[in-house]
Amino acid sequence: MSDTSRDRFLQTLNHEAVDKVVVDFGSTHVSGIAASTLSKLRKEVLGDDDYKVKIIEPYQMLGEIDDELRDALGIDVLGVMGPKTMFGFENRDFKPVTMFDGTEVLVPGEFNLTATPGGGWYIYPEGDTSVAPSGHMPKGGFYFDAICRQGPIDDDNLNVEEWYISTAIRRDYVYEVFQRQCEIAISNLDRLFKALGDDVQAAFTTGTDFGTQNGLFISPNAYRDLYKPFHKAINDHIHKNSNWKVFIHSCGSIVELLSDLIEAGFDILNPVQCSAVGMDPKMLKSEFGDDLVFWGGGVDTQKTLPFGTSDEVYDEVSERISIFNNNGGFVFDAIHNVQSNVPVENVLAMFKAIKDS
Q1: Helices marked H in 213-309
Q2: Comparing C-alpha atoms, which of 339, 337, 283, 348 is closest to residue 310?
């Protein structure tokens, strides 16, 4: 992150007007670009046909946006990922793999695959092919689906799969789990404060999806009972001991929870799913823009970006920037990750609209 980007980013997090919109792609596992799309984009922008994108998040097959491409696209935010992927192996010792659509990529050394009966791929926890696989990519697919490896539920020895149901029927058990998680999180945060200090500007603390396309997964009362006390404890601890802003990722129609999320101490909302019921950009900015930085919402990745024309992409991006970036408080990103099979001309139109804004 350059000094200029850093200053602009800090201004944005403090809801100050900036000379140009702050841009993020690739700093988190929910603001990335799928490897096949990223490979096409990089070739269009930099013209290096021999370059192979590294897969840094294999569950969703997200590619690494390298320094050269980041500079060329004007991306401001630099993320620091954990040492291991969602499948439990480290991003190191990269080796070549060809995806089903023919894209040649590099994957971590313990990205170990076996073929499925239908011609797809199985992937394994920590790369250990001696145990049951934990992910499946069907033939022709672009990312992995999780494989449930849990046996029947034993209420005396719970290892809960049906999590949302359990928040209602096993409330006390879930509450105890959350209490212990909160204790561990606060202990880990204390280590991070000492190690990182003010080198960090924002901390991604939770990615629970509370919304569907049409409403909430969970009632506001259930959120206030089970989640909010622990969110507030962690967020208060961060604010007391650092200058970091707190980032929550939660998809869908969550407008009914936004006041609670603000009270719980969240500073940043992602992915800002404007296509969901009640998530109108102008209303969000007007009602919640003084309290929340909107990180996302820049273009619809379900319809406009993959299926619209380049002109439609350009117009939507321009409009979203004019709404969300008014008086600051906006980090441009698509609504969740940019998927595979998105026309590269649409991705280029998105970046042109950002540049022109």
Answers
A1: 220-222, 228-241, 258-263, 281-288, 304-307
A2: 348
The Cα–Cα gap between 342 and 357 comes to 22
Q: Is residue 352 one of the residues assigned to a domain? A: no
Nearest Cα neighbor of 331 from 79, 55, 8, 112 is: 8
Q: How many domains does the chain have?
A: 1
Report the C-alpha gap between 126 and 307 in whole angstroms.
Answer: 36
Tell me the one-letter amino acid at 204. Answer: F
Q: Which amino acid is at 246?
A: V
Instruction: Express each pLDDT in 60-86 by its tens digit.
Output: 999 999 999 999 999 999 999 888 999
Beta strand 330-332 with 22-23 is: parallel
SS3 338: strand
How many angstroms separate the CA atoms of 229 and 61, rounded? Answer: 34
Mean pLDDT of 316-340: 97
pLDDT band at 171 (very low <50, low <70, confident <90, very high): confident
What distance in Å separates the CA atoms of residue 339 and residue 341, rounded to the nearest whole number? 7
pLDDT band at 157, cuts 50/70/90? low
Q: Is residue 35 within 8 Å of 99, Cβ to Cβ?
A: yes
One-letter amino acid for residue 265 of the chain: G
The model's pLDDT over 13-40, given as tens digits with 9 standing for 90+, comes to 999 999 999 999 999 999 999 999 999 9
Q: Give the residues across from 332 on adjacent strands.
A: 23
Single-letter residue type at 205: T
- 116 close to 140: Cβ distance less than 8 angstroms: no
Domain that holds residue 45: 30-75+81-149
% of the chain exceeding 70 in pLDDT:
96
Query: Is residue 311 a part of any domain in this protein?
Result: no
